[in-house]
Amino acid sequence: MTTEHIFMLVAMALYMALVLIIGILYARKSKTTGEFYLGGRGLSPLVTAMSAEASDMSSWLLMGLPGLAYLTGLADAGWTAIGLAVGTYVNWLIVAKRLRRYTVVAKNSITIPDFFSNRFHDKHKVLMSISAIVILVFFVPYTASGFAACGRLFQSIFGINYTAAMLISALVIVLYTAIGGFLAESTTDTIQGFLMSGALVVVLVFGVVSAGGVGAVIDNAQSMPGFLSMIQTYNPASGGAEPYGALKAFSMIAWGLGYFGMPHVLLRFMAIRDPHELKTSRRIATVWVLISLGAAVVIGIVGSAMLPGEFTTSAEAETIFIKIAEVLGSNGVVTALIAGVILAGILAATMSTSDSQLLVASSSVSQNFVKGLIYKKASDKTVMWISRITIIVIAVIGALIALDPTSSIFDIVSFAWAGFGAAFGPVILFSLFWKRTTLWGAFAGMFAGGVMVFVWKFLISPLGGIWGIYELLPAFLVACAAILVVSLLDKKPSKEIEEEFELAASNQPVE
To answer: Please, what sign has the CA dihedral across residues 402, 404, 407, 411?
Structure first.
C-alpha cells in the first residue's frame, strides 16, 4: 500500500468515526419510539430535504448510474435520470404535505405500515402485516447492495479483502443506526448529501481535465455509434448501435413512479416539523437531485474517454467513479486526502441509504409485528430494544447476500425499487387522493403490485422484445387497476374514514 493510499484510508476512517460519534450523541434524544423512528416530527426543511435525497440516492448514484453510462452511453442512464428527477419533484409537490397531515390525522402514525392500518381502520392489521412483509422482502437485498458497494470500494482501491471490508462497513452502519435512530441517520444523511454532491463535482472536473478536455470527451463519445443518442444505445459487445424504442424509454422514465412508494423517503415527509416548510424542502431537494443526477451520468461518459475499454462488464464499469478518484489521489499527499474525502462520498451514499433501510425494516418488525400484532402492551423501551436487535439480524442477512462481489449494484437496486414502487406507490396515491379507496382495495393493490414485480422480472421480461421493459411500469399499472376495481366492488368506506380523509385534505390545523 502506497503513502497516497494510506492518506486516502485515513480520510475515510475519520469520516466513519464521525458518523459513529453522531450516533452516540443522538442516542440521548431517542428515548421514545416516536423519536427513534420519526425524530419526534422535528426535522428542519434543510435536513428533511437533504436526508430524503441522500437516503434515496444510494451507492448506485456514484457507481451504478455512471457505470451504466460508461458501458452503453446516454440513453439508459439519461432516461432513468429524467424519470428520477421528475419523480422527485412530483413526489414533493403532491405527496409530501398531504402525507404529513394525514399521518397525524390517522392516529399520529409513525411508520408507513401504521399509516396504512390507521388510514383504513384495519382492526385485523391485514395491511400492517403485508406492508411489513413487503418492507422486509425488498429492503434486505437493497441493504445488501450497499454493503457490496463498500466492499468493492475498499477492494478495488486498497486491495483489502472484499469480505472483510464489506463486513467492517456494515458494522459501522449498524452501530450508529442502532444507537441513534432516526435523528442520527437524518443528521448523518444531511452531511452525506453535501459530501456526495461535492464528490461528484470534483470527480467530474478532474475526469474532464484528465481526458484531455471537453472536446476529447465528445470526440471519444462520437466514435462509438449511438453512445450520445437518446433514441439509440451503444452495444459494447458488437461495437455498434442498437435502436432504443419509445416503450423502452418510457419504462426507464417510469423509475420516477418508484418515489411514491419509497418508505425511507416518505418518512422524511412525515418527520418535518411544519408542513408549510415543505415548499422550501422541495426546492432544495429538486436542485440537489438535478445537479447530482446530471453529474453522475456525465461522469460515466467522461470515464469512457479517460479510461477507454478499461471495463467490459456491469460490475467492472460500476467502479469507474472509484478509478477516477484513485487516479486523482496518486498525485501526492494533498490530492490523496482529497481523494479520500471523495471516496468517503461513496461510503456516504451507501450509508445514507443503508441506515434508512435498516431503520424502516426494523420498525416494521418491532413496531408493526411485535407491538402491533403479538405483544400490544410492549413498552417503548422494549420495542426500541427489539428494533435494535432486528437491525443487527437484518444486517447479518444482508451481509450474507452481499458475499458475492460480482453482483451488479444497479440491477439489485432497480429490482428493489420496482418492488416498493409497485407495492406501496399506488396505495399511497389512492389513500391520499381517492376517498372511495377501501381496505380490501388497498390490500389488492399492494399484493398485486408486489407479485407482478416478480412475475414480470423472472417470467415475462426474459421473453424479450416489447416484454423486456422495466418491471416497475406494468406492476404499477396492475396495482392501480386492482385498487380501483376492488374498491368499487367493495362497500363504501365508513363515515368516520371519509371525515378523516376530508380533514387531511383541508387546510384546517391538525397538529
So the answer is: negative
